[in-house]
Amino acid sequence: MSEAPAVPTSLTGQLTRSLLCLVGGAWLLTAALGTWHARAEISEGMDSTLMDSAARLLLMAVPAAELPWAPAGPDDHHFYQLVDLHGRVLQRSPDAPAQALAVPLAAGFVDLPGWRVYSQRHATLPLWIHVADDLGHRREAMLENALSFVLPLLAMLPALALLIRWRVRRGLAPLRQLAAEIGRRSGQDLSPIAGTAVLPAELQQIGASTNHLLLRLSEALDTEKALAANAAHELRTPLATVRLRLHQLLDMGLAPAARAQALSAEQALLRLGRRAEKLLQLSRAESGAALSSAPVNLAGLAGSVAQEFWADADLLERLRLQVPEDCDVLALGDFDALAIVLRNLIENAQRHAPGSLIELSVEAPATLRVRDHGPGVPAVALACIPQRHQRRVGVGYGLGLSIVATIIERHGGRLLLQAPQAGRGLEVRIDLRPAGALGPG
Questions:
Q1: Residues 313 and 422 occupy one common structural domain
Q2: Residue 322's beta-bridge partner residues?
Q3: What is the pLDDT of residues 203-262, one digit of tens each?
Q4: Which residues are 82's β-sheet partners?
Q5: Side-by-side strand order, sheet with 414-418
Q6: What is the pLDDT of residue 431?
Q7: Co-location of 153 and 207 in the same domain
Q8: Backbone torsions φ then ψ of 336, nearest 5 degrees
Q9: Is residue 191 situated within a structural domain?
Q10: Beta 89-92 vs 78-84: how paired, if at all?
């Protein structure tokens, strides 16, 4: 089983995600560095608070026998103990433990499970004070500081994503305009893209290269069209001369074998003449020459072309014409060009469905149908038939439908090929612009 084609990713989406990740990453890195710095500042500030609290409490400290009450701790996150040189608790805050803290009687900081303790000796009395700070309180303060960095980012992230996407889309607008201009170019319009000089510097090279490529394609197509037209035109006179000489030889009463060879040569010349005429038609259709856009009576057009083929006794019975009897079907187009279309379709049906019925019908509002009942065309080949020289893929429709496709495209119409029955026949449907339509179809 074949894999499904990959869905192309949006350049706007890629840039938006990349910029959002970069901005968010830079913000998070800044938040991490700020949190690390704030953690040190918070610890230093709280340690300073412990030292100040110890100093103030020592000023208030007296032996327990002289002062039966003990001052309260600095706040809910601190407690203190006043101990003698033997480690006995003389005074303490209401929330302090009754037993002396297991810290040495030395000035400085000591970390206990859940607490950071600062110890200091009285300046004149044989007393030590231990002031403890809750480490959980410190962690909460550090967490609040970190959230103060991160929460604004999380809150602003959706708005930041929309802002970045809007700015990226605006920045890529010239690229979308350039892509749209390139997409509008076709075999009928290879004009240079205007305004490349005002594009951003990164796109100017693309615009200049695209214009150079369009110029080379235009020159190549012009050369091809001129070569095909000139070759087909130059072949007309020698082909007519050779056919005239063959007719003269046939009138001279050749032997049966020589006559058969001459007749075979005449058929080959007829095929070559038809191919030259097709090349001329294709060159004219692709030349860009203006086609008229006047109301064309499709019933009259179909009847005029059918009359040409009914002159052939073989097609008199095979070609059937169906037109509406109660209304005129009018389409905007060029009568002569549309006549070439019908001639090519009928000739293809005559050649590739020998002996079968050929139906030419006109339908409202502006539709032409040509259907044969021959061997048909494989479904996979239907899309390829209008391309040039499809004889090599086993379909055998050559230039005829390529001419038809080119003319219908220049009329702003639609060409649809389908097999009405599985494996039997080919139907070509042409939808043109009704005579009341405005603008290209």
A1: yes
A2: 361
A3: 778 888 888 887 887 777 666 666 655 655 556 667 667 666 666 666 676 677 776 776
A4: 91, 129
A5: 319-322, 358-363, 367-372, 426-431, 414-418
A6: 92
A7: no
A8: -65, -40
A9: no
A10: antiparallel
Integer angstrom CA distances of residue 182 from 93, 174, 286, 440: 83, 12, 20, 20
Q: How many domains does the chain have?
A: 3
CA-to-CA distance for 93 and 99, rounded, in angstroms? 12
pLDDT over 70 at 342, yes or no = yes
- Is 180 within the bounds of a domain? no
Residue with tokens 């208030």: 60
Residue at which a domain ends, from 167, 186, 218: 167
